[in-house]
Amino acid sequence: xxxxxxxxxxxxxxxxxxxxxxxxxxxxxxxxxxxxxxxxxxxxxxxxxxxxxxxxxxxxxxxxxxxxxxxxxxxxxxxxxxxxxxxxxxxxxxxxxxxxxxxxxxxxxxxxxxxxxxxx
Length: 120
Fold this sequence. Notes:
By secondary structure, this protein is mainly α. Among the domains are: 8-51; 66-100, no CATH class. Helix content is 63%, strand content 0%. The chain is built from 4 helices and no strands. Helix 3 packs parallel to helix 4 (89-103). It is elongated and about 105 Å long.
């Protein structure tokens, strides 16, 4: 019958586990393991990014929604009679807001009635 003997490095592992339990207590071991796991995950992520850098996103995919919003902005400006040639988006937006503010009817205060039911 073969006997299983505990040799050199196995004793070191057993003593290390006992030392961890005695120093930090059994309630801290899950926190330590979680921290080690997160550190390993971050290391592997950084290593993967270093060996295989991710390509930059293509600008063509992001410009399509901007074009649609630019077209809508220009169309709104033309509907309001605003000239758009040679102006930036910000300038056109500002003019649209100014035009909208000036063309809004003034808000009226609600009429209050007196005790006899007559408006004031």
